[in-house]
Structures
1.
Amino acid sequence: MPRLTTPMPGSPKPSEELAGSSPAGDAAAPVTVQGAASAELFGPGVEEKMRITGLNFFYDKSQALYDVSLRIPTNHVTAFIGPSGCGKSTFLRTLNRMFETVKGTRVEGDVRLDGEDIFDLDVTSVRRRVGMVFQKSNPFPKSIFDNVAYGLRVNGGLSRAQVAERVERSLVRAALWDEVKHKLHESAYGLSGGQQQRLCIARALAVDPEVLLLDEPCSALDPIATAKIEELLLGLADSCTIVIVTHNMQQAARVSDYTGFFLMGKLVEFDRTEQIFQAPARKETEDYITGRFG
Amino acid sequence: MLVTLALVYELWVNSALSRHQFGWHFFVTQTWDPVAGQFGALPFIYGTVVTSMVALVLAVPAGVGAAIFLSELAPRKLSDAMTFLIELLAAVPSVIYGVIGMFVLLPVIKEYAYPALKNTLGWTPLFQGPFYGVSFLSAGIVLAVMILPFIVSVSRQVLMAVPQDQREGALALGATKWEMTWKVVVPFAKQGIFGSIFLALARALGETMAVTMVIGNDPKIHASLFAPGYSIAAIIANEFTEATSDAYISSLINLGLVLFALTIVINGVARLLIHATSRHSAQPA
């Protein structure tokens, strides 16, 4: 897969140097963000989880993303907003290499998870470490328990008791346990839409992902179900890096610490959420969030 | 529906003589002796069921396996081309299958399959005794080839209809393509695959011509698959025009009724089975 490694604009170090500074041995250790500019963006004590540099994305001949570069902070909620077709979902699907299920897609650029190039890692291990929740809830036609246990069983190595314990913990983390604990062995399709989406979150959490990607997870849900999921995301951010794509700006403002604005395949602006919503640096961002366009 | 009812009515009325004369003994009597006026359906029921089972045992793994390959692994163009070829198999007239069975399959079985089976599984009652070519086994194999296209074609369609979000859901959890296929795609398509199998079974039960040509037409019950036998459809086709007495004709029609009932019972069992296996897979509300 041809990839370019262009230096990130505004980056304190060229990415080649960064890549060289994190050999495979200590790759698990998060790369601490250094340099004045990034410290300002991330604040003290905030570490970098993923680093995307010079990302270009192609569907056959047409380009969907243009030179996207940014860093995603550990254990925070990062939101991406933008009008339909702006490439934010495509961007999300590169982060766990899920785009590869679509024929004719091609990526150039560099995507690193804790300093490791995700294209050098085994695809299944990338997806295990970077979980994903989809726009439309997609529980398997199995019981609630088996849905959450699916990822654990696929990855193997756990006893029945451990699986049961992890299932319970995941359902608790997804704020679903109290609603389903008496009917774990009933079909997941008996749940409401909001519950199904939380079940999908629990299913993703069960394998203990380091990063959780959510692709417009609330777009098919009513406000109450949406509020529950937002509350849950805020709680999760203590232990997990959350990346959420949404077309709902209020949602981004409510749940995220950092927000990126995509337009026509380009990352227009990426900053702290307050900054984006109160004093955006770019006119396009301001137009979008004030509703003058999109 | 009306046609079905009319059909049942005709079968019922015209088999009245046979039913009055033999009663329930008809189903448990092994003798079929038109000269003596003795008619028992058991050998035919047995032959029909056994050949269909042999066909299923052979065709289900092959057919479902092929469908999984075509829908999940093969490139789209190859998949479409091969599916077309397999579906062509379904269009071959059954008498042709019978001829191929007699002149190609029987010598091959006799030369290779018979010694191999006898040496490895000869200790079971299923694979004992001499082999003359025409047999339950031969009929089962011919049937397997005939029903394979139904299983492959329907199962492939059902597998391809499994929503993309189900596949992505599995992949997003770190499943490999293989784990995704076996643990998500196939279970999701389970109902439809069962459906294709029962469609194939219905075809196997009623298949007449090809079976008649290779089963041996011997109205006796043998445990061994190497022995010749007879099926319901085969005896009706063979003897209907030669049936001389009223009891004879009536008994053949009674057999038709039995075949009909057998098909209905199997359909019923299939539905129960599907119902039992799909408790967890109720469709989304």
Note: The two ends of chain A are 34 Å apart (CA to CA).
2.
Amino acid sequence: MTVFSFTTSLLQLIFILACAPLLNGIMLKLKARAERRVGPPIFQTFFDLAKLFKKERLRSQNASIFSALAPVVLISSTVVVIIVSPILSTQELFKTSGDLFAIVFILLVGSLMIALLGLDPGTPFGGLGSSRAMTISSLSEPALLVSIVAISIQAKSTNLSTIVSANLSHPIWLVSPPHLLAIFALLIVIFAEAGRIPVDNPATHLELTMIYEAMILESSGEDLALIKLGEFMRFTLLLLIVANLFFPFGIDTQANWIQLILSSGISLIKLTILGSLVTLLEVTQAKLRLFRVPELLAGAFVLAVLAVISEFVA
Amino acid sequence: MTNNKGCRELNVDPQHSSYTFEQKLVPPNNLVVESEELLKNGYRLGLVSAQDYGEIKYISYVFLAGNPDRRVEIIVELNPKKSEVPSLGSLSFSAGRFEREFFDLFGIVPLTHPFLRPLVFHGNWPINWHPMAYNATQPKFDDEGTYEFPFVEVSGDGIFEIPVGPVHAGLIEPGHFRFSVVGETIVKMKARLWFLHRGIEKSFEGKTIEGALELSERISGDSAVGHSLAFSLAVEDYLNIKVDENEQLQRARLLELERIYNHVSDIGALCNDVGYGVANAYAQILKEDLLNFNASLTGHRLLRNCADYCRNNRLDDFNISQIKDFTDKFEDLINLIENNSSVLDRFVGTATLSLDDTKTLGVLGVVAKGSSLPSDARYSHPFAFKTPGVTPTTEESGDVFSRYRVRVNEVRESFQFVKDPHQGFALDSNSNFKNNKNIKQCGIGIVEGWRGTIVSRVELNSDNTIKRYKIVDPSFLNWPALSVALKDTIVPDFPLANKSFNLSYSGNDL
């Protein structure tokens, strides 16, 4: 651990803490404009979170320790991943700490806790949401793992920082068929994991169609604020990881302080572009019928497998 | 005749609508035989109205058949001491529902009903209290309930229940839905409505015609024209009033304006329920424009208080180019929806209602037409214009998409009609009514509201105040069909299926 890598990790955390609600605000604004509404100000999400932190926290009488634990575990698992991932710089906090498999499973701990949170209060909607979320998760996991394999073959490492550095020194890899296929599979998985259209509709108020929202229906106050913040941070983090895998230019590799600052600006631009693309998809597509989601995820899995195969064929 | 948009234009027959009306006084023992005969001859039971005037108690069963318009009323007098009547529940599903309604409200017992259980009554009324009975008094209500009314429990491996409502997350009326599901598939859905019994029919009693007209506009807020027109027609039928042909025409036009704004709103809401917010936003903007157009035309966005405007001929004062503008916007909206395969994928094949079930349940309106049953009072019981040989717009598959398509086609037809109702239109004022209302004087009004056929029956006092007014909103007959359509549907598709029916709670719970 060097001073630089420590500062990088800290800066990454601050960057995502600041950008996650902002990204949400930007996406809400874009969606509202597409629907010819004025929409909330882009900083509204910050105020909403602040309001939730101030509000009273109510928990179900049936709630166990999981209701208290879940929001904290979600946030802390996300924070751990943020610290070890190459977001602004490829300088690692610890040697090979940013292993992709490790990252995936640390994030899964958060997802699992939210599913348990859904079951905890004993309401029918929560259980429904948890069962749906776990079904989708178990289907998206294989696609995710196989696409990680595809990405890591060229760099001969599953360490995220190593992959990003290797891609930077061999830009031609970025447009190689296996890489493109794997990135596409990863994007589909991110839509599923983050509960966005076409898999889940974050804006719905219809309990019966909810997946993610159903699990957190009973949460309030600080709990809800932490869950929401954690969810925004995860989404931002996943987008940035994909951005750096696909388009790593601008990230600091030489432990250069000026490049680190520049990298923050470039990452913000990358985020805005990706967020806009996600919103564009959400605006133009309807949500899939729940029973069609496995088909979509199976498609992602096929893409990931193809990516691995094409690696060896090429 | 079809125009370039592929929809039929309304062919207007020069003949004025005329109908036959027959009234029969039948002893209770013959009720079942007489009814069976009528049902066999293609009649449907459109309305059952119980009258409790203390010493005089009777039930009238209004049977309806279209093309030509025939109406038969069977009257069964009851013993005031012992309110019992044979049940028609085994002949017709809708009859069973009407009987459960008068059992709760009047305390009249339909003997041999196949499955008699409360309908309106929720368990928190005193057991022997019937709000519509003669001399019924205000009882003491008990929040805890006086009567156990459990849901049928579905048991088996992996079956669990999801209760939803009566308070919902959206701005909708109260209704409780109890789903029994295996995984995501619905095994049984039971809807319990009647949470807001307002006593509308009771409130009508003693009102002047003007006062009652105002009340009728408020039976179900989105069907102000449909219900007030049904009331007006019933009263005119009772008093044998001939209405000026131009006024009838304007009424028909108002009815279509109401249909347009409600269908447009529903089309948008269907898109919203599949997460396609842009189309919903577009539809709601168009709806807002239409409501403003209504306001500029009649003085009320929801087309209330329109009676005077019909007479004053104000409706002709509008700019045709505005309708043209709405038509263009509507076609843009439909393109936006139908060019999106992800939306159609959600609509097609969801919540299918078969034609057999549609007929058995006596379903009306948009839902019936979506399952290829041409139920439309504008054709079968016309009051202003008639379209001979033309059947209403229907779709075959009975799914959400069919019900969506029926709405789209109806909006197109309605725009056409609103734009130019005079084309080929002529009323024959010398039409002959075959009225022999000598047993019990009554008036019947039949209107195709935007949800389906509204039937009403009125009796007046000698000073022309309302003696008894009975309303049948199509929702009353359509609600059971929703549960049937949900078989093999998955839970997350329920809001979409429900929206495609879009039934009224307040029209159902009078």
Note: Confidence is low (pLDDT under 50) at residues 1-17, 424-434 of chain B.
